[in-house]
């Protein structure tokens, strides 16, 4: 017996990959996500490879995973894929404390976040 299958949330020409619990703030991660939205998958991977931001390597892995999902699970053409959506969400925040002067305390927040990348196949132009 088993669980009933859920209907597919994406269209037939789309594939998705998600990375959760990335160590970094959603605000910084969104800057990287904005830089790849709308680009072809190949151009997005190239710009992430040479980006100076630390989180760009994690985003690159997510884009590679979405492209692999499109190719292997949904039989989409890799050369026609582009980043349709790249959305960022907040995760949990670790709170730490640091001693400050005169018996006070300074709060240190260590945020985590997640990213969802959806790649879509471009329609053929005749």
Topology, please?
Blueprint: E1 14-23, H1 26-36, H2 41-49, H3 56-72, E2 81-99, E3 105-121
Your description of this structure?
With 126 residues, the chain is α+β, with helices and mostly antiparallel strands. It has a single domain, classed as Alpha-Beta Complex (Ribosomal Protein L22, Chain A). The protein is built from three helices and three strands, in the order βαααββ. The chain has helices at 26-36, 41-49, 56-72, and strands at residues 14-23, 81-99, 105-121. Strands 1-3-2 form a three-stranded antiparallel β-sheet.
Summarize this structure as a short list of keywords or feature phrases.
126 residues; alpha+beta; Ribosomal Protein L22, Chain A; three-stranded antiparallel β-sheet; 37% strand
In terms of per-residue confidence, which ranges show pLDDT below 50 for 5 or more consecutive residues? none
Mean pLDDT: 94
Task: State the shape.
Answer: elongated
Global Rg: 19 Å
- Fraction of residues in helices? 25-40%
CATH domain class name: Alpha Beta
H/E series, N to C? EHHHEE
From the 3D structure, determine the CATH topology: Ribosomal Protein L22, Chain A
The order of strands across the largest sheet is: 1-3-2
Number of domains: 1
So, the CATH homologous superfamily?
Ribosomal protein L22/L17
SS-derived structural category: alpha+beta
Cα distance spanning the termini: 47 Å
Query: In percent terms, what proportion of residues is strand?
Result: 35-45%
Q: What is the total tally of β strands?
A: 3
């Amino acid at each position: 017996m088993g669980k009933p299958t859920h209907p597919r949330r994406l269209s037939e020409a789309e594939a998705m990959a998600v990375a959760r619990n990335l160590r970094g703030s959603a605000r910084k991660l969104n800057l990287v996500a904005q830089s790849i939205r709308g680009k072809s998958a190949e151009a997005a991977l190239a710009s992430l490879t040479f980006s100076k931001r630390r989180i760009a390597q994690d985003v690159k892995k997510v884009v590679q995973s979405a492209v692999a999902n499109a190719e292997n699970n949904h039989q989409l053409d890799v050369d026609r894929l582009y980043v349709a959506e790249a959305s960022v969400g907040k995760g949990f925040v670790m709170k730490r404390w640091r001693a400050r002067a005169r018996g006070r305390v300074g709060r240190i927040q260590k945020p985590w976040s997640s990213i969802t990348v959806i790649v879509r196949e471009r329609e053929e132009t005749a």
